[in-house]
Every structure is written in structure tokens, then in C-alpha cells.
Design a protein that fits this description.
The protein has a three-stranded antiparallel β-sheet. The chain is elongated, with a radius of gyration of 23 Å. It is mainly alpha-helical and 293 residues long. It contains 13 helices and three strands. Helix 6 packs antiparallel against helix 8 and helix 10 packs across helix 13. The chain has two domains: 79 residues, Tyrosine recombinase, N-terminal domain (DNA polymerase, domain 1, Orthogonal Bundle); 177 residues, Intergrase catalytic core (hpI Integrase, Chain A, Orthogonal Bundle), CATH 1.10.443.10.
């Protein structure tokens, strides 16, 4: 018995992982099981795992994909050991592949300002889009979190927003005053015109009165980036990255940023310290007289 189903049920019940994450774990473990053939997954040893990772490497998987596979396998065997299905963890001494540091793309303050000003005028969708952009930058939301918002998630009195993040975990994030005003205008002037049947549950609606899709948000951000003259390739996540790195540059505590972003692990948030150091070095090279030789 491989105990994979038990492990996935445990994750679903105790870790609050999303369906996509659970499916990813299942694919990794099924891949190892298929490679083993007739041998039970729970009986493998360290040499087997090293050989399997070598097999994945030979197939051309990136260091990041290999690291993901090993993390899934390691977590599985830690579960088996914890539940008493085996006495050891054969993956414990296998090192994770070294990953290149990938710094998230961010916008400068001036670029953010240009982007937020791009939906000009009083046309209904421009008012809606201005509210979306202000909210993404002011509260650091994931695009899926933005699309999942309902009017009931807003708390204009406290200037706060209830957000359902990964694994359906809820958190409350602050809303800047300008974002509150933009959303309030959208709710008063635009949303009733889009929701003619008064049946829509989502906060942000498309022309047909349906909840705005993630692809719809991607498309409007690309369009306004062009209007703003921003030549970088940007996405909704670029505004989330910019939110975090601008907070850090302004002196915000890293753990407060972690809470606002909904990161389960502080190590995920620490990537923004590298962004800040990179920006600092770039400014030093540009501005300090001794840096130019």
C-alpha cells in the first residue's frame, strides 16, 4: 500500500492546500510510482530517489522542477515516518538543487502613478478599471483574490478588505483612502449599471454583468500599461510585487508585509529584501561619484 491517498487526504484536511496544489503533489508522487514499476512507493531507499531525480534531470527538467519534485517526495516520506508507516526518511540527506535567484519584476513609483492615471475620464469601464488598479496596488492582492471579492468583503468604515487567499484562508488587509474612494465611486456609479438584473455576487463585473475573469484583469492591465508608456511586460502580479517592495523600501516590517500578502512562510516574503538591495545597488551605481571610477 503506497499511502498516497491517505497523504493527500491529510493535506486537504489539515493544510488547507488548494486543489491545484494537491493535484501537483499527486502528479509528482504518481510519477515516482510509475518509474518504480512493481515496487511499492513506501519501500524506496535513498539510492532509488537519487536515481529517480537523475532520470528527471536526463529528461531535461529544470532545477526548479527538480527541487519541487524533491520537496513533494520529502514531505510525503516525512508524513509516512510521522504516521509510523516507516521508521526513516530516505530523502533526508538528498540536497535540493541550487536555484538561480529570480527577482520579481516591479514598477517604480513613477511608473505606478502613470499606470493608475491611465484609465482617464468618466466612462463606466474607466471608473471600474481605476478602482481595480488602485485596489491591486493599495492592498497587494493576487488576481484570483481580486476576482473573488464580493461587495460584502468591503469595510469602508475601517478602510479594510476581507480577502480569501490560497487554500481558502481569510485575511484582512488595509485599503488606502484613494482606493476606498475609487471603489466607492465604482459601486455607486458603475456597478448598478453593469448588474442590471441585480443578481451578480462578485464585486467587479464585466460588460455582461458577470464576474470579471482573471484573463479580463490581465488584458486591462496590459492595455493600460501601453497607454502609460510602460515598456516592461507586466501582469497583475507586478502590482502585488510593487506593493510589497515599496512597503519594504518605506521601512515596513517584513512580517507585517508577510501578513498582508497572505504568505504562509516568511521565506517567501524575504525575496523582496533582495529586490530592495538590488534597487539600492542600482541607485548607488548611478548616483555615487566613487562608483563611476
Amino acid at each position: 500500500m503506497d499511502h498516497v491517498d491517505e497523504y493527500l487526504n491529510y493535506l486537504a484536511a489539515n493544510k488547507g492546500l488548494s486543489r491545484n496544489t494537491l493535484e501537483s503533489y499527486a502528479r509528482e508522487l504518481n510519477g515516482l510510482s510509475l518509474w518504480l514499476g512493481e515496487r511499492p512507493l513506501a519501500s524506496v531507499e535513498r539510492d532509488d530517489l537519487q536515481a529517480y531525480l537523475g532520470h528527471l534531470h536526463d529528461r531535461g527538467l529544470s532545477a526548479r522542477s527538480l527541487a519541487h519534485a524533491l520537496v513533494v517526495i520529502r514531505n510525503f516520506f516525512q508524513f509516512l515516518a510521522g504516521e509510523g508507516f516507516r521508521s526513516d526518511d530516505p530523502s533526508a540527506l538528498i540536497e535540493l538543487p541550487k536555484l538561480p535567484l529570480h527577482l520579481p519584476d516591479t514598477l517604480s513609483l513613477e511608473e505606478v502613478e502613470r499606470l493608475l492615471q491611465a484609465p482617464a475620464g468618466d466612462e463606466a469601464l474607466a471608473v471600474r478599471d481605476r478602482a481595480i488598479l488602485e485596489l491591486l496596488y493599495a492592498s497587494g492582492l493576487r488576481v484570483s483574490e481580486l476576482c473573488g471579492l464580493t461587495p460584502g468583503d468591503l469595510d469602508p468604515v475601517r478602510g479594510a478588505l476581507r480577502v480569501r487567499g490560497k487554500g481558502d484562508k481569510e485575511r484582512v488587509v488595509p485599503m488606502a483612502e484613494v482606493a476606498c474612494q475609487a471603489v466607492a465611486r465604482y459601486l455607486e456609479e458603475v456597478r448598478p449599471r453593469l448588474d442590471k438584473a441585480q443578481r451578480a455576487k462578485k464585486l467587479f463585473l464585466n460588460r455582461r454583468g458577470q464576474g470579471l475573469s482573471r484573463q479580463g484583469v490581465w488584458n486591462l492591465i496590459k492595455r493600460y500599461a501601453l497607454v502609460a508608456g510602460i515598456r516592461k511586460t507586466i501582469s497583475p502580479h507586478t502590482l502585488r510585487h510593487s506593493f510589497a517592495s515599496h512597503l519594504l523600501a518605506g521601512g515596513a516590517d517584513l512580517r507585517h508585509i508577510q501578513v498582508m500578502l497572505g504568505h504562509a512562510d516568511i521565506s517567501t516574503t524575504q525575496i523582496y529584501t533582495h529586490v530592495d538591495k538590488t534597487r539600492l545597488r542600482r541607485e548607488y551605481d548611478r548616483k555615487h561619484p566613487r562608483s563611476r571610477g
